[in-house]
Predict the structure.
Amino acid sequence: MASSKLIIALATVAASLPVSAGAQAPAAPAAARYCMRVEAETGTRIESVQCWTRDEWASLGVNVDVDWPKEGVRILA
């Protein structure tokens, strides 16, 4: 009985831990577009999703490998 409570407690803690720091964006062809959530513009609370290639994100100052685990939605290949 006590061991099942311990297992449930450990599973709950593990599920609440943040994504590993080693996580990064999945590999995809160079022309693939990475879709990520972007902060809402001034005057609205509606968050948008933008899809750009790795190079386009980099030109905007975004590191896809760092931001993908938090903001990534999908990849369009």
